[in-house]
Amino acid sequence: MTRRAGAALTVAAALCAVAAPFLAPHAADSRDRGLLNAPPTWLHVLGDDGTLHAPFIYRWRIVSRLEQSYQEDRSARVPLTWFSGGHLVQSSNEADAPLLLLGADSFGRDVLSRLLYGARISLGLAALAALGATLIGATVGGLAGYRGGTVDDLLMRGTDFVMVLPAMYVALALRAVLPLVLTPAQVFGLLAAIFAALGAPFIARGVRAIVRSERRLEYAAAAEALGASGWRLLGRHLLPATRGFIAVQITVLVPAFIVAEATLSYVGLGFPDPVASWGTMLHDAATNIRVFADFPWLLSPAVAMFIVVLGLNLVLQEEKGRGAGLAARG
Amino acid sequence: MTRYLARRLAFALVLVATVSSVSFVLARLAPGDFVAGTLGAHASSDAIARERARLGLDKSLAVQYRDWAAAALRLDFGRSMLYDRPVGDLIPERAANTAILAFAALAFATVVGVPLGIVTGTRPRGVLPGIIRGASVVLLSMPPLLTSLMLVFIAARTGWLPIAGMRSSTGADNAVLDLLRHMIVPVLAIGLPLAATLERLQAQAMSETIGQPFVVAASARGLPRARVVWRGALKAALRPVAAMYGLMIGTLLSGSFAVEVITAWPGLGSLMLQALRARDIYLVAGCAGAGALFLALGTMASDVALAMVDPRASERESHAEAA
Amino acid sequence: MPPPRTRALLILWLAITLAACRAASPSSESAGAKTVSRGGELLVSVRSEPISFNRHASRDTTTHLVMMLTQARLVRVNQATQALEPMLAESWTSSDGGRRFDVKLREGVTFSDGAPFTAQDVVFAFEAAYDLRSGSVLGDTIMAGGKPLKVEAAGEHAVTITFPESFAPGLRILDALPIYPRHKLESAFKAGTLRRAWGLTTPLNELAGLGPFVLSDYQPGQRMVFTRNPRYFDKASDGTPLPYLDRLVVDVIPDQSAELLRLESGQLDMMTSEISPDAYAPLKRAADEGRVKLVDVGVSRNADGLWFNLKPGAFANDPRAAWLQRDELRKAISLAVDRQMFAETVFLGAGVPIFGAETPANKVWYWTGTPQTPHDPAAAKQLLATIGLTDRDGNGTLEDASGRPAEFTLMTQKGRPNLERAVAVIREELKKIGLTVDVVTFDSTTVVQRFLGAQYDAVYYNATKTDLDPGTNQDFWFSSGSAHPWNVEQKTPATDWERRIDELMVRQIASRDDAERHRLYDEVQKIFCEHLPIVFFVAPRVYAASSARVLNVTPSDARPQLLWRPETVAVAH
Hints:
The complex is a heterotrimer of chains A (330), B (323) and C (573). With 330 residues, chain A is an alpha+beta fold. Chain A has 12 helices and 4 strands. In chain A, strand 3 and strand 4 form a beta hairpin. The two termini of chain A are 23 Å apart. By secondary structure, chain B is mostly helical. Chain B is 77% helix and 0% strand. Chain B contains 14 helices and no strands. Chain B has helices at 2-29, 34-38, 45-55, 61-73, 87-122, 127-141, 144-158, 175-210, 213-220, 225-253, 257-262, 268-278, 281-309, 315-322. Chain C has 573 residues and is α+β, with helices and mostly antiparallel strands. Chain C contains 15 helices and 21 strands. In chain C, helix 3 (119-130) runs parallel beside helix 4 and helix 8 packs antiparallel against helix 10 (377-386). Chain C is globular, with a radius of gyration of 27 Å. Chains in contact: A-B, A-C, B-C. Chains A and B meet through helix 4, helix 5, helix 6, helix 9 and helix 10 of A and helix 1, helix 6, helix 7, helix 8 and helix 9 of B.
C-alpha cells in the first residue's frame, strides 16, 4: 500500500513538471514590481455579505514598500478564470490582481509557477544524475566486490579520490575553460555529468561491501557450481541484493543534487537567471533574513522536495515483512 | 592483517599527495590569484606586480609546484597568504574544532538513528514507524543551509541557546559547559540529517535480515523474537552501516561549510571555501590534503570494522582466493 | 493515553511555544542611567577575521577596524561634519602656497606600553608607508600626484610636511595613516619584513598603539577582545578621560542572518557591516519595541554602476566594436532604465536616483546642475538607431547593419543581492528596447581578474571612493589611474574628454581657491554626464542599527558607521 502511495506521489510530481506550462498561472520569469514578497492570495468562497460565490481572490494593496507589508483590498472580489489562454486557472484581472497561490518571491515572481517550471529542471537533473550515479556506482562496486584483490583495491582507491577531491575546486577550474555564456541545456548536461560522478562513489562503496559478503553465501557458491558465469551471478543474484541500499542512497542523493545546483552557481556553473530551479529558489529563500518569521511561503520548494523524496523512498525502499527474504532469493 | 593495514596506509599517503597536488594545480588554474582578489580592483599594476613577486605568485606553475612539493616532503606545507601563518599550524587548529563537532554529531546520530532504524525495520507497518520514516525523509530532504538557519532561528526565538559562536565572550564559569551549550545547534544541524541517513540504512538492512531463512527458522523453533532480532539479525544488519560509517567520519571531519558559516564555528569546512575564494593555493592544497587524510583513515577504519562484523568476507580469505 | 514518546513530544512542543511567546513580548527593562559615563562593555560583530594586526599589510575591513581601535592618526576627518580635526597633531600652519605644513604634535603622549610619542614616530610612519621593499598598502593613499611627501622632524614634538606640488586636499589624506610605535617596528622595517610584522600570531603584549583600546585577547576564528588603554591621550569636554568603554568585544560572525538575530535579541550591540534593505522591517519592529535603535543615516556616498570595457582595441576582431564602446549606447541605457522601479526592486524604495559620478551625500562637491535623465525608452531607441542598431526584422530585438543581434554580456559578482537584483532589472529594461543582455555571475576574484585583464563586455560593480574630496580620488579620475575602471592605467588619454578631465583635475587639485575648485569639479562632473563612462542608477539609503543601550554615537554613511570615533561610544550601565 505504501508502495502505491509512493508511486502516486512520484508520478504526480513528474506530471506536474511535465504539465507546468498548463498548470502554472504565469511564466517562470514574469514579475510584478509592486508585489515583492507578497503573501499568497487566499481563495475565498464566502463573500463579505455572507453569500457563496465561485472561488475568488482579493487584490493585494501595498502598505509599505520598505517593510514589504500588504493588505487585502476587500472592496472588490476578483473571480478566477478557468481554462483560458492555455492555463488551468488564472485571475480574471492578471494585471492588477495576479493569482499568487504560493505568494511571490523577492522579485515579485509567482512562487507556484516557478515551482512547477523549476520541477522540470531540478527533478530532471536529479533523476538523470541519480541514474548515472547508480549505473556507474553499481558497476564499479559490483566489479570491485566480485573480483576482490587488486581490482578491488584500485577501484576503491579511485572512488576515494573522486570523493575527496573538492568538487568546488574542480568546478571553478572547469568554469574558466568553458565559454563565457552557457545555454541552459549545456549547464544541464554539465551538472548531470558532474553530479553523477560525485554520487557514484557513495553507491560504489556500499554495493561493493554487500556484493563482497553476498558472494560468500551458500547460494552464490551453489550457482557458481552449477556453471553460472560471473556476469550472470552479478546481475541476477548479487546486485539485486544491493537494491535496498541503493534505494536509501538515492533518497539521500536526490535532495543533495537539487541543492548542489545552487552551490555550484557560486562559481558560475548555475542556470542563468530566468530559468527557475528549486535549488536556487531554496537558496534565495534561506538567505532572506525574514523568511521564517514573515515569508514562509518562500520555503515551498522544501515542502515540494519533501514530497518528491518521500514518494521516491516509499517506492524504492520496500518494507518487507517476514518471509519476504525467501521469496527474493528465488 | 598488518600487511593489509600497511598497504592501506601507503595508499592513504599516495591519496593525500595526489589530492593535494591536484588541488594545488586546480586552484592555480582558476581565474585570478590571491593578489587579484585582495588588491585587485583599485591597486596600481606596479603594486600588484610587486605583491606577486613578494608572494612568489609570478613564477610559473611548474616552478611553484616544484617548490611546494619539495617543501612538503620536509613537512613544510607553506605559508597561508590569507592568514600569514604556516599552513601546518592553521589546519590542525581548525580541524580540531571541526572534529569536536564531527564526533559529537556522529555519536548523536548513532544513538538516535540506529535504534530508530531497528524499530522501523523490524515492524514496517504501524503509526510509529511511519512517523519515524516521515521525519527521516524530512531531514534528508532539507538542505543543510536551511536546517542550520532554522535551528539558529529557533535558538534566537526561544533564547535557550547561544546564537552562533564557539564560546561566550564574557568569561563563562565553566568552560566545558559553555562549549557544550554552543555545540548544541551545530551538532544538531549536522547530526539530525546524519541520524536520518543511519535510520534509513539500518531500517533497510534490518528488514532484509528479518526475512532471511535463519531468522525465520529460529522463530519457527520458538526462540523469542527479541532475542533473534538482537543477536543474529543485528550483526548481519550492521554490515551496510559499518561500510558507510568510516566514510561518514571521513567526510564529517572535512567539515560542513554551511553549518560552520551560519553558526560561526571556525572549522575546516569554512576554511576550505575561504581558501578557495581567496585563491590561497597553499591553504587550498593543505585543506584538500587534510580532507584526503581523514577520508582515507575513515574508509580504512570502516573496512576493518566491516571485516569484523562479517568474518566470512574478511580480507584474508579474499586474498587467499585471488592468489 | 498517547504513548510515552508522543507525550514527550507534545510537552516539548508546548514548552517551545510558551518560551517563544515569552521571548517575543517586549521586555520591561529599566532604562538605567542614560547619561554618558565611563564603564561597560560593547559587543560588536564583523564578518571575517582580520588578515593581520598590521594595517600596512592589508586593506580588509576588519584589519582597518583593529587599526581604528588601537592606533591614532595625526588628523581625523569628522565623518559627521566632514571637517578635518586634530588628533595627534595639536595644530598646524601652512605656508609656501599650501605646500608646507608645520605641525605641532601633542606633548606628554605615551604609547600604551609607556614609551613616549615623539616626532620620530611620525617620520617613521611615513617611511614605513613609502618603502617599496616593505610594500605597504598604505603607500599609494598618502601621496600627492603620485609622489611621496617629505617629512622631517623639527624638534621633539614638531614635524614639517612638505608636499611635492600644490595639493588642495592637504592634510586630509593623513586620515589614513596610523602612527605605529617606532620602537616596536623599526627592526622589522630595517630587515625588510615590515609586512610580516604584527601578524595574527604575534604575542599580544608586543602590540602597542596610541589608540583608545588595546588588544588584550585573540581567539583565532572567533573573537578579539579590546580593553581600555589607560594611557590614551584624549579627554571628553568635561574632563573625563576617554574612552568611556571598559571593554570592546569583536565577534566574528560570517552570516548576516545570525548577526541580525543576535542584534534583535540583544546578544549584540552593533554590526560593522551594512544593513541590507531586507533587514529594515525586523529591525524596525525591534526598534518599536525599544530593543534596538535604528537610524536613517541618509544617502550613501558610493553607488554601484555599469561600465563597459572602453579599452581601445578590446573588441578588435569583434563586429560589435562599431557600437559597443560608443557613448550613445551608454546614454541609451541611462534613458531606458526606470530608476524609480530600480530603487523599488533593488533597495525596496530606500534609494535615491543618481545620474552622475557623485551622490547627494557629498553635500560639498555634488554638482547641483546634474541633469536628471528622464525615463524615456523611445528616446533610447532613437539614440541607438543613430549608431546603427534598429529592429530590422521586426522580432523585437535590435540588429546592427549586417543583421547581427545587439547582444553583450554583463558580468557581476554572485552572492551579493544588491548586484544580482540590479542586473536582473537592467536586463529586463534593456530587453524592452531590444538589447539582449547575457548575465554572467562569478565569485569576486574571478570578476576582478577578468576586469583587470580587460576580458569583459560590461560589468556591474562598485566604484568606491574613499574620502569625499575629489582630490583624494586621483586613481579614479585620472586616465593614468589604477581605479579608472573603464580603461585603467592609460599611458596617454584615449579620448579627448578624458584628456580634458585630466587637465581640469590637475588644476582642481592644485588650486587654493575654494570657489575655483568647485567650478572646476562641476565642469568635470558635467563632462562625465555627457559621456557617461559609468552609468549609475540608484544610490542606496544607509541604515545603522545598534542595541538600545548604546549611547553617544554619531552615525556616518561610510564604514564603520558607528565606530569611526570609538573613544566616545558609551553604553548604559
